[in-house]
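Internal tracking record. Fields below are filled automatically when a chain is submitted to the structure queue. Please do not edit lines marked as system-generated. If the sequence contains nonstandard residues, flag them in the REMARKS field before resubmitting.
Queue: standard
Priority: normal
Entity type: single polypeptide chain
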Amino acid sequence: MDKVAVEEYVDRAAALLGLTLDPEYRPGVVANFERTAAIAELVLSFELPDTVEAAPVFRP
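SYSTEM-GENERATED OUTPUT FOLLOWS
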Protein backbone atom coordinates (compact mmCIF):
# COMPACT_ATOMS: atom_id res chain seq x y z
CA MET A 1 0.00 0.00 0.00
CA ASP A 2 1.55 3.30 -1.02
CA LYS A 3 1.45 6.51 1.04
CA VAL A 4 -1.42 8.04 -0.94
CA ALA A 5 -3.54 4.91 -0.43
CA VAL A 6 -2.78 4.90 3.29
CA GLU A 7 -3.70 8.58 3.61
CA GLU A 8 -6.97 7.94 1.77
CA TYR A 9 -7.67 4.90 3.96
CA VAL A 10 -7.08 6.91 7.15
CA ASP A 11 -9.35 9.72 5.98
CA ARG A 12 -12.15 7.38 4.90
CA ALA A 13 -11.91 5.18 8.00
CA ALA A 14 -12.06 8.24 10.25
CA ALA A 15 -15.10 9.53 8.36
CA LEU A 16 -16.85 6.15 8.60
CA LEU A 17 -16.23 6.07 12.35
CA GLY A 18 -17.34 9.68 12.77
CA LEU A 19 -13.90 10.72 14.00
CA THR A 20 -12.36 14.11 13.39
CA LEU A 21 -8.59 13.88 13.08
CA ASP A 22 -6.76 16.92 14.36
CA PRO A 23 -4.46 18.00 11.48
CA GLU A 24 -1.59 18.06 13.97
CA TYR A 25 -1.96 14.30 14.63
CA ARG A 26 -2.87 13.12 11.10
CA PRO A 27 0.76 12.56 9.96
CA GLY A 28 1.38 10.35 13.00
CA VAL A 29 -1.78 8.34 12.37
CA VAL A 30 -0.78 7.88 8.73
CA ALA A 31 2.75 6.81 9.76
CA ASN A 32 1.34 4.20 12.16
CA PHE A 33 -0.96 2.79 9.48
CA GLU A 34 2.00 2.64 7.06
CA ARG A 35 3.94 0.60 9.63
CA THR A 36 0.94 -1.64 10.25
CA ALA A 37 0.52 -2.22 6.50
CA ALA A 38 4.23 -3.08 6.17
CA ILE A 39 3.99 -5.60 9.02
CA ALA A 40 0.82 -7.13 7.55
CA GLU A 41 2.49 -7.43 4.15
CA LEU A 42 5.41 -9.32 5.70
CA VAL A 43 3.12 -11.69 7.59
CA LEU A 44 0.88 -12.31 4.59
CA SER A 45 3.87 -13.01 2.34
CA PHE A 46 4.78 -16.05 4.45
CA GLU A 47 3.25 -19.13 2.91
CA LEU A 48 2.08 -21.86 5.23
CA PRO A 49 2.08 -25.50 4.20
CA ASP A 50 -1.34 -27.14 3.77
CA THR A 51 -0.61 -29.44 6.71
CA VAL A 52 -0.55 -26.60 9.27
CA GLU A 53 -3.58 -26.39 11.52
CA ALA A 54 -4.71 -23.35 13.47
CA ALA A 55 -4.15 -23.58 17.21
CA PRO A 56 -7.50 -23.49 19.03
CA VAL A 57 -5.98 -21.83 22.12
CA PHE A 58 -3.00 -19.50 22.36
CA ARG A 59 -0.70 -20.24 25.29
CA PRO A 60 2.40 -18.03 25.40
